Amino acid sequence: MAKKYLVGLDIGSSSVKACLVDAESGATAASAFYPKTEAPIISVRTGWAEQEPQMWWENMKLALREVMTEAGAKGEEVAAIGISYQMHGLVCVDKDLNPLRPAIIWCDSRAVPYGERAFSELGEEKCLSHLLNSPGNFTAAKLAWVKENEPDLYNRIYKIMLPGDYIAMRLSGTVNTTVGGLSEGMLWDFKENTPARFLTEYYGFGESLLPDIVPTFSVQSEVSQAAAEELGLKAGIPISYRAGDQPNNAVSLNVFNPGEIASTAGTSGVVYGVLGEVNYDQRSRVNTFAHVNHQADLTRLGVLLCINGTGILNAWIRRTVAPEGISYADMNVMMEKIPVGSEGVSVIPFGNGAERVLENRETGCSIHGLNFNKHSKAHIMRAAQEGIVFSFCYGMEIMQQMGMDIHKIHAGKANMFLSPIFRDTLASVSGAAIELYETDGSVGAAKGAGMGCGLYKDNNEAFATLKKLAVIEPDEAKRSEYLAAYARWKEMLQKEACL
Length: 499
Prior knowledge:
Layout: E1 5-11, E2 16-22, E3 28-34, E4 50-51, H1 53-71, E5 78-85, E6 91-93, E7 103-104, H2 112-122, H3 124-131, H4 139-149, H5 151-154, E8 159-161, H6 163-172, E9 176-177, H7 179-184, E10 188-189, E11 194-195, H8 197-203, E12 212-213, E13 221-222, H9 225-231, E14 238-244, H10 245-252, E15 260-265, E16 269-275, E17 287-290, E18 301-307, H11 311-320, H12 328-335, E19 346-350, E20 364-368, H13 377-401, E21 408-412, H14 420-430, E22 433-438, H15 441-452, H16 459-462, E23 467-472, H17 479-497
């Protein structure tokens, strides 16, 4: 039987990753990323962040070529392509589908005043009940900035796209997007189940600027003859899945159902949970988007919590508090000698800028309860990891207030999830079991493509071979100690942040 491969592309701001998945076995045949050093971000002014869409395409070509060569795969053996991408970006193209300017990417903050003004003038209740978020600094607000500050360029725009839409367009020559894509740009009205006309009319955008809408799991377009020749593929390969990086991370961990959580804990931390009813946080402390399997008659929303001070705090502790030259594994050994709750030491971990979960307050990081006669470096080290977990749990309480019943956390075995202290504390405070897996975003995109083109009948078949590495259950014997430490931490936070 002829081999069938699925291609997964992950268009990040640091690099573009490609992987090749054997469709039958579900195994990853090859993966690669480019550039090998971090991709440049153009920052002409403070707070600006742009990238050239052509750079994504060139790096995608290099990564794709490497995986095809490494696996010895032929272009005609590729059955489908799936795309994951950095969220909230803005790509503007003309009628020839050429970019008119560099893409304004997710971490660019120039559009904040445009979103805040819309939130105020349209009304908070109107925006939250229809968009499920403040217009904020998302794609619609970025386009409003272009309209006001680059009017000649704005008048030449044929279509706007997200980064993943652009790559799909380069592959196929077809311009389209998904409901999930529109929702992450604040361009989808959940109440009307249509593009957000009240917001586009407020900003003065023509709805014709928006791409056509296609289902997330479907044959959205096909590889064109021109792209096939450029990439060494076969014309007609379906592009059958597309999602932003955080929803796609949940996909890669097989998170599709209400109450399931996908979490990452690198430099910053993310908790992404699936909600089965339309709801929003009235204080806009978390973001809510359409999840990959959301439909008009099947509500599946992704609630996104981001904590800035996660792995960056643990790294700071290692550099400045831990004994010189110590490894993270050695830190874990030292911390295990300290009891739950760090004998009264609490660390507020928010030292990496303003935190959305604190309504954009910037509290800084602080240490509480130190006793010079009792506490050691190991106490501070453990309290820091506990503080990171407590910040996750604080955000998860907001999700629960929105109606989410959290019973399981899926995560890749990487970064902070390598720490037993971190894992045990998170399981025991949240009361949710943690399942650790071996996967990444490009693999999720590949398997999503398999679902979209019909090779897999559903997510359970697509992820049947997802390798579960470990399960961490809550420590019921010590759960009261964990909860007491969390309660003490919350009391400190409320004083610090004036909540």
